[in-house]
Amino acid sequence: MAEPLDGVVAVRRVAVLGAGSWGTTFAKILADGGAEVALWARRPELAREITESKRNSDYLPGINLPRNLWASPHLAEVLPGAEHVYLSVPSQSLRENLRVVRELIPPTAVVVSLMKGVEKGTRFRMSEVILQELGIPSFRVAVASGPNLALEIAKEQPTAAVVSSDSLETATEVALAATNPYFRSFVNTDVVGTEFGGVLKNLIAVAIGIVDGVGYGENTKASIITRGLAEMTDFAVAFGGRPETLAGLAGLGDLIATCESPLSRNNTAGRLLGQGYSFRDVVKQMNQTAEGLSSVTPVLELALERGVQMPIVSQVAEVLAGTLDPRDIAPHLTTDPMPQGE
Questions:
Q1: How confident is the model over 20-53, as pLDDT tens digits?
Q2: What is the pTM of this model?
Q3: Catalytic residue among 28, 201, 221, 284, which?
Q4: How far apart are CA 180 and CA 33, in angstroms?
Q5: Does residue 201 carry a catalytic annotation?
Q6: Is the same domain home to 211 and 64?
Q7: How far is the C-alpha of 194 from the C-alpha of 116, rounded, in Å?
């Protein structure tokens, strides 16, 4: 299980790469925790608005950002002196982004993934891509996950998250930086379970969105959420994750938040699919990345590799491919004739 924090020396200077809703929100979390935060925004006009007006009207309308947070479109201005580097870019572009920044990341910086995806083709988790591209030891890499809907947190509605690293010391250092009066971070060393929890809940949220869009009720959704957690746990454990991680903030907590909230991009994407929109139309309508849509194929490939049954994700894949009518989705029914337990 995730553990509370003991006292550790706080970091003073951090960098966040990616000024979308989650990157900006996490930058705010860190700034409100006392760090000086430099945020990389790809568009100069957005960097200027964040620095001068302390606003990000594109992604967090109405939110005031802290004074100790500034932004730049130039990586060479954001990264020098950073003790931690937090990555919040689309999972499928992480590798190419790392190739651009690897010479700029300070040699002793801890690198933290805020992303919830699996790379297509390679099927690697985000921490694995970081290790490959940066060539740094695993004790300098951490991941953060949990029930974290950006706009709610930006409004300072209280919540919690998990920071995971092979090194408990690294996880604790990052968690301390990412703790403030409205955001509490816990720690564990189960990187596999923590990352896969964040990935898999997105896929279940797409399924929930589909049945919501079709018009099915709470019984259907509760069944899919419950069976979805079992599916997530089986998958993560097959790859070395711990079942208790999936029962915590990085699994069940994140699953509930993502499945139940209209703020969830994956839930929204699923709802559009359930209403009859094609996959291509859904992608066009989404102004932010729904990571679950990109992760379906690599997750199913990994499941096949380990012999894990994933009826929910399989039916989502069929809907995405246009081979299953959303009204026929019933992954909670596609189990053995006489299933045992829940």
A1: 999 999 999 999 999 999 999 999 999 999 999 9
A2: 0.89
A3: 201
A4: 5
A5: yes
A6: no
A7: 10
